[in-house]
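Researcher: Let's do a round of design. I'm pasting the structure tokens now; please hold your answer until I've finished.
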């Protein structure tokens, strides 16, 4: 399963074609967040997507992205 996530992240293929995240389950949101955080997209794009998916503020989203960049 993790190999599949990595492949999708590398190809920037996210489940985020979901338009209304308020109707998704927490598990679905977490999966999409992981895909975004481990993708090869720019830091700015990751922050934008994390905010969109999670509803986090700018500071929290930036800190989360930076935390995952160090992994």
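Researcher: That's everything. Go ahead.
Model: Designed sequence:
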């Amino acid at each position: 399963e993790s190999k599949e996530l990595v492949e999708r992240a590398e190809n920037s293929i996210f489940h985020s074609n979901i338009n209304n995240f308020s109707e998704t389950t927490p598990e679905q949101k977490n999966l999409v967040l992981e895909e975004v955080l481990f993708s090869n997209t720019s830091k700015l794009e990751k922050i934008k997507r994390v905010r969109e998916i999670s509803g986090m503020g700018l500071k929290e989203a930036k800190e989360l992205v930076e935390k995952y960049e160090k992994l």
